[in-house]
Amino acid sequence: MIDLHTHTNKSDGTDTPRELVNKAISLGVTVLGITDHDTTAGWEEAKQSVRGQIQLALGSEISCLTDDGISVHMLGLLFDGNHHDMQTMLEETRDGRLPRMRKMVEKMRAAGIDISMDDVEAARPAGATLGRPHLADALVNKGVIKSRDEAFQGMLNNDSVFYVSHAAPTPVEAVRMIRSAGGVAVIAHPFASLRGQILDASNFQELADAGLNGIEVDHRDHNLAERQMLRVIAKELDLAVTGASDYHGNGKLNSLGEYQSAPDQWEKLESRADQRRVITA
Ligand code: AMP
Ligand code: ZN
Ligand code: FE
Ligand code: FE
Q1: Where is 167: in which H helix or E strand?
Q2: How far does the centroid of ligand 4 lie from the alpha carbon of residue 108, in Å?
């Protein structure tokens, strides 16, 4: 069972890296991708938790913005965690998330909602990349809303008046950085339209030209027609097709292993990293 896209409490998931690895082992996951938003902070603990048959594909889900302002998530897997420019890129995005959160909180306060940055910080685990889910948790703690899900269907949605974006690399820049750090790039849930505006089928060529290796096709935020379109694009551009859970612990309904990648597609990806970087016990 191969699940290449999951989150821990080093971003907006709720399991520690150790808990996630243990759950994956219990479930029979053979290759686990750990892809916290804009950080590699969970890698060390995850490595120390490896035992038995599981293999880790350490990575990060990089927040990107196109020149047209479309939000894109790029999974980088198997890159060199000590690559200086990659770490700088991730750090710049994390830094930008703080003023962005202040602005969102300010907008809410101006609308009479009882929420503060202290509330948000109290909801963020130590060392976690700050994100809207922590604001959602703070709003739940305050009794403003009932769940993260409710938040994302309303006040925290990309279309909401409270939404503020943050600075981020373009998808092409992220792909180039992942590849120059020796890793492989897989675009995450590209047709997840409920989250906001999405890429057009014609945008994939330039990503492939930049070095994109794969497309996440089997994901709960894609319907069957969207998956079919993505499979056609992947075939045309000779890209690997992946499936993954995007597990977030209790933070989302997604369950670990609910979508998976085929072994041949994983091999296709792994063979394109600049060296063997899979972690084994
Ligand atoms: P941000 O990175 O701060 O813009 O927040 C976006 C993150 O919120 C995404 O990466 C998702 O993992 C998470 N998210 C989106 N929709 C939901 C939802 N319905 N419930 C929980 N988390 C969500
Ligand atoms: Zn997330
Ligand atoms: Fe994502
Ligand atoms: Fe994700």
Answers
A1: none
A2: 25
